[in-house]
Give the backbone structure.
Amino acid sequence: MNWVKIFNRLFEIINTDGETYFSGSRFINKVREIDPYFANYNQYIGQRNNDGKSTSRKDYFYDILLSFDDQGRLRLINSILDDIHSVAPEKITQLRGEMIGLTPTSTPSIPLEIWNAERLNKYIQEIDTRIANQNFSGAITLAYTCLEGFLKAFVKKNTPDTECKNEITALAKNVQSYLKKGFPIIQMKHLACLIILLIQPTKQETNLVSHISIWSPTVGLLSLFVI
């Protein structure tokens, strides 16, 4: 993993004025979430001054990052990115893609006016975090769990007399049958393609991001019918 490149991309984000900006104390507070016994800001800066080391944020942020092993570095960076994901989603998704060697893609996002948008976006961020931590099975599990929940909500709301099964394929077929009654055929073809993509197992980890990107707008579309 190219930690110099990853750090430079991270620092570009957290050195920008606004909500993404990380002061020295904010950064070290994040470090102390990973290592509770790490020095506080005043202690750390005092020690660097005593040692004649640079107190430039970029210099000591990098030194602190490299003081951890790879797992600790990932935890620290992901903790920082989780805090600011909603402010700079595209840059953060690109950085997380860099961390696991995937082609950067845009972060799926549910418009705030959509039903349960805040909860959906929280799930999507958690899926991104699991991918960045290379917890691919966990990301798929969460995606399917969320999809199953929203499909069930759709079926219960719009077809209350239909048996609500626990299997995603059966639920998707119920939704497809309902939508066929009121959707133009061209729109149904597009929706059917999305559902088919979702219910096919993903065997290659490098394809996971594209599957998650498809999942988000599909759930957003279905949620419109649950309100």
About this structure: Residues 102-106, 185-190, 196-227 have pLDDT under 50 and may be disordered.
